[in-house]
Amino acid sequence: AATGSPSRASTTSVAPNWMVEAERFAPRLRRIFYRGGERERLLDQVGPGDLVVTSYAIAARDIRLLAEKRFAALVLDEAQALKNVHARRTVAMRELEADWKLALTGT
Question: Where in 56-96 does DSSP place strands (E)?
Fold first, then answer.
């Protein structure tokens, strides 16, 4: 994601809901659901203003690719999933570069 692109990561169970909510509340944003076998190609298509949605599991798996990008914003939903500072996904999320970061938790 070039500078200017927001990104958000969450647990796998709520990632699809973010796509639905983004369509509802920000219909002009181009939404990219970063998942599946073609996701590296998707990342190459991300530009300023695009919203990238993915899960913690996929972000941790692809951290080398994602860490090459700088995001305008990074929203970490269900951030209680990152409470173990030594967990692979927690370490991976700290490697992501963003101008603005927000962690949300329901617990």
Answer: 70-76
Q: What is the pLDDT along the chain (107 residues), one digit of tens a residue?
A: 445 566 666 666 788 888 899 999 999 989 999 998 989 899 888 888 899 999 999 999 999 999 999 999 999 999 999 999 999 999 999 999 999 999 998 76
Contact between residue 48 and residue 3 where contact means Cβ atoms under 8 Å apart:
yes
Cβ(96)–Cβ(66) under 8 Å? yes
User: How much helix, strand and coil, in percent to the nearest 5, is found in the chain?
Assistant: 35, 25, 40
Q: Is the dihedral of CA 41, 64, 62, 11 positive or negative?
A: negative
- Determine contact, residues 32/52, Cβ cutoff 8 Å: yes
DSSP classification of residue 55: E
* Token pair belonging to 34: 């970063």
Tokens of 6: 């927001």
